[in-house]
Specification:
The structure holds 2 protein chains of 2 kinds. By secondary structure, chain A is α/β, with parallel strands linked by helices. Chain A is built from 13 helices and 12 strands. Chain A is globular and about 70 Å long. Helix content of chain B is about 50%, strand content about 15%. Classes of the chains: A alpha/beta, B alpha+beta.
Amino acid sequence: MNDSLSLVCPTCKAALAAEDGSLVCPACAARYPVREGIPSFASRDFYWNEVSREQMAQVIQAAQESGWQTAIYDVLRPRNSEVYATIGDGRRADWKYLLPLDTHSRALDLGCGWGAAAMALAEVCGEVVAMDATWERVHFLQIRRQQQGVRNLWPIHGGDTLTFPFPDGHFDLVVLVGVLEWFGESYPELPPREAQLKALRNLRALLKPGGHLYVGIENRFGYDYLMGRPDHNGVPFVGLLPRRLADWVSRRRTGEPFRTYQYSIKGYRDLLQAAGFGQCQFYGDLPQYRHPHYYIPLQESGAFGYFLAQLWPSFTEGTPERAQDYRLAYRVANAGLSLASRLRLAGLARYVVPGLSIVAQRS
Amino acid sequence: MLPQLTEYLLQIWNDLPLERRRPERVSYLGMRTDIADGYSTWLAFADRDSAPLFLVQIPRHAAATTRLGHAWEMLQWLHQTAAQTVGRSLLHPVLWDVVAGGHVLVTTAPAGQPLTDNNGSAAKRITEMGDWLIQLAAATRSSYDKAQVRRDLENEMTRVVERFALTPTESATIERWIAIWDAGMPGSHVDLFAAHGNLCRRSIWCADDRLTIINWEQSRAAALPLHDLLFFALAYLFPPTRHAPLANFVRALEMAYLEDGPYAALVRRTIVRYCAALGLSCSSADAHLGLMLARQAEREYEELHAAANAGYLPLLPDGASQPRRTYQAAIKDQAWINLLRAFIRACTPAARPIPSRIRTAATLPQ
């Protein structure tokens, strides 16, 4: 446990004290265990991962014995090459350069996953807290950061309750990568949009005045969804439907309601403004926000037009990796763009980019 | 970092070599580069301009910081030394400084778009680059003590042999290449030339037949001749993704140097023309190719290793004959070492002799 990290009781916000390998709240007597040096604020044993729990145990053991790189290449990659490409590629967090971070900045990566973005943020920030509701993920991140000698990164287990062990106004940056759409699952008693608003307002309170929120997420009307890529519930086209109809289709197809709300650019702006964020900047992530090869400023017509004219034609050649994976999507997008150009509507392409990087500021 | 950079640049705008009035705002378009490069690249746009004004490169780790610092120095030196010949194809250095706790390199922006199959034929590009490299070499030619150059070369190749645990036969082939190079350079001094070092497609931008060469972080002020030409002709055929099977890279080597196809013929003619323009002998072209491959293998390993140690794990494709490899084995079995081994195999006595083909090209009708 890192004593230099200021942790407070998620319930009453009193400063926590270390006691017998746990963190204890002197005000309400709540007790939070510390395992492997990682404080745990999770309300339940929750596991969500791209590999099974048994496989993850093997990865962690290999990481401890042979190093994290060997673990994810030798153990994980044969089972899931997609995840391998995700974990070790810190370029996924190049959006960090769009933010006014420096060595005094404090960042919270909520839903940090395997920690690639958190590790990348630790290069430019003074303090990074990486939080995930899956214990094994933060455990892996702890092993990795120790092996890489990173001292300003603190993995924390939790985040599932959306109450946080940090004082208000503590962070300069809160990061949500592939997380915002899942807040509807965190508050099942609330309508999905209300659940997202509640979570965003809780997170806003953690930011200093003028602090930033980064959101990496899909565009509800991205051309990949228009082409039939399944939504988060595995059903294609459902996110394009009006919400009530989407819920009906989802219940018919999966037996579950539709709660993983995503939005258009305008929809995200409205949501963030309602939660108390302003000055939203939008970047189109191509081919998608999890593996961006381009960050395209969508509100700058000059830059966007430049991308369409000069860089888009060489997209498959300009991307050193994964060009093969997006060949079909590229062809369809290219055909659509050619048609739009003939109709002098190429500028509308910004509204169907598949992924978005959103930088918002606490109002 | 970019917001702080913008603020800083706007403060010192009048002192910058940028031919534009001070803008109200600057926006950035991010372009991913190879993980081995070790830096993040951004094009900056002023106000509503539709052409980028400057290029920003931000190193991710210490090794990349060193390389970008070298690129800054190299650009300044080239603008002093070769401005009359290749200056128009070079970006102008704008800033190399610490911003928000990290280094950042700012240059003017390239015009046009990166080299692709869509913006010019192979014949055109090989010919163009041959001409450009002749100009670069002519402008940066300098004489060095041959014995020292040989010692440096031998030390470099020794590192390659040890790094990749080359067999005695492979090691002997490299020694033979050094001997061929030595024999082709009579006298106690040899001429060396500036080399870009990473002349792949994405390092070359073209706009209306004007080329701009970027990414000078692997450059050398004094390198063996033919390095860039041999590199470019080979890398031009590389697959667009490093994640492609290694066999695809070896196929590029075969098409460029080991077969009798039209592309190989084009490359040979360009080599002959390059050597003739600089008064060099073509007889050791095969040795130069082998030494280039060896140098690139070592460089590739160093870059990938530095990236992985900094937490940027490279995507390592499966080996041609060993689809399941450990990480430690895979990182030493990437594109360039496979190319080196393939060329060594082609140079063994049982295979068709490469040297005779390149030498013969000098006598073929043009």
